[in-house]
Design goal:
Elements lengths: L2 E2 L1 E4 L15 H14 L3 E5 L5 H13 L4 E7 L2 H10 L6 E8 L2 H7 L4 H16 L4 E7 L6 H13 L4 E6 L6 H14 L7 E6 L6 H10 L4 E4 L13 H10 L1 H4 L1 E2 L7 H12 L20 H9 L27 H10 L6 H15 L7 H8 L9
The structure holds 3-methyl-2-oxobutanoic acid and zinc ion.
């Protein structure tokens, strides 16, 4: 039996915090329903108290969502919570996400406060939010660097105050997968009442470990993952939705988890997010990068043409990638050239292929990539039978 992991998408909130990626209400109204169609369970739409524009965006997008929970962020401040609740008034499934920093660094430098006072503020915020909505998620900011015993005390207290979800953010992307997994396990084993709520990961990517940490969290008891499309987010970003979802899918037999993500829509939504935010996806980005399924070296192409499983662990079509993935460069071999020529209607025998390959290498040494129009203009005319 698979266990369900809930996908909490924060592209519109943490993702939007990337400099230059700010979204208008109209843009959030395009992306929100697209993310819901992708199958996310919870959509963090924004931080309503941060600006009138974000208040409006949360209100408008939450009206559009049919199945996903609409979530709004707030600090552990009554005014923030009032505004979040107001913005969520039309949501079918509203959730207030409130919280406070629990690491000694946050307590001392951000709040100039004490552990006791921060615990009191956490409890008060959750109780206050419960006055507006049933579903209240508590975040312990910088949990990744918080003292574990103290973190557990805070979590136990906010469960008693009515929290339904406990978010354990590795805000600074500091943890190693084992450390983060251990933290979640310890919480699962030592916090009274934890089995009546959902524990969530929220991992940042400062050391490139956000996906690994999120998966480790799930393996140790978390059942919600907070993530963003294309891994967007503060600084080096958040755990990438597409990576977490595909790790859980590709390792379903060993791990036994499932999500509601419609995998075939991943590429389309990734492109929509990238275009709407004006943030290109790096070419070698796992799952959604331009080169994620491209094969350029002769050795790899030869294996791939014989059998895809030699160099592909994911069928590109499973994430909605269409078209060929054999890229022709000066490192490509005869088989790949023959394959591409065949695909554009120019099958060649071995003798002709040798001639074609010599010409191909001349072109390829001058260019980064040889595309179909190069073949059509420079190689196909060498063989009269061809019709492209
Ligand atoms: O990274 C973080 O700690 C956050 C919280 C506001 C949830 O984004
Ligand atoms: Zn964050």
């Amino acid at each position: 039996m698979s266990q369900r992991v809930y996908i909490f998408d924060t592209t519109l909130r943490d993702g939007e915090q990337v400099p230059g990626c700010k979204l208008t209400t109209a843009e959030k109204k395009i992306l929100g329903p697209a993310l819901e169609d992708l199958g996310v369970d919870i959509l963090e739409i924004g931080f309503p108290h941060s600006s009138p524009g974000d208040f409006e965006a949360v209100q408008e997008v939450s009206k559009l969502l049919k199945t996903a929970t609409s979530c709004a962020l707030s600090r552990a401040i009554q005014k923030d919570i009032d505004v979040a609740a107001d913005a969520l008034q039309y949501a079918k499934r509203p959730r207030i996400h409130t919280g406070i920093g629990t690491s000694d660094s946050h307590i001392k430098y951000k709040f100039n406060s004490t552990r006791e006072k921060v615990l009191e503020r956490a409890v008060a915020a959750v109780k206050y939010a419960k006055g507006f909505v049933e579903d209240v998620e508590f975040y312990a900011e910088d949990a990744g660097r918080s003292d574990l015993e103290y973190l557990c005390q805070v979590l136990e207290a906010v469960i008693k105050a009515g929290a339904t979800v406990l978010n354990i953010p590795d805000t600074t992307g500091y943890c190693l997968p084992d450390m983060y997994g251990h933290k979640i396990k310890y919480i699962m084993e030592n916090v009274a009442g934890v089995h009546n709520v959902i524990v969530s990961t929220h991992c940042h990517n400062d050391l490139g470990l956000a996906t690994a940490n999120s998966v480790s969290g799930v393996q140790n008891g978390a059942r919600q993952v907070e993530c963003t499309m294309n891994g967007l987010g503060e600084r080096a970003g958040n755990a990438a939705l597409e990576e977490v979802a595909m790790v859980l899918r590709q390792h379903h037999h060993e791990l036994g988890f499932e999500t509601g993500i419609q995998y075939k829509k991943i590429t389309e939504v990734s492109r929509l997010v990238s275009e709407t935010m004006g943030m290109p996806v790096q070419a070698n980005k796992a799952i959604v990068g331009r080169n994620a399924f491209a094969h350029s070296s002769g050795i790899h192409q030869d294996g791939l043409i014989k059998n895809r499983s030699t160099y592909e662990i994911i069928d590109p079509a499973d994430v909605g990638v269409e078209g060929h993935n054999i890229v022709l460069t000066a490192r490509s071999g005869r088989r790949a050239l023959a394959y591409r020529l065949d695909q554009i209607g120019c099958p060649l025998n071995d003798v002709d292929l040798n001639r074609a390959y010599s010409k191909f290498l001349e072109i390829a040494d001058q260019k980064k990539e040889v595309v179909d129009t190069d073949l059509a203009q420079e190689i196909v005319p060498m063989f009269e039978k061809v019709n492209v």
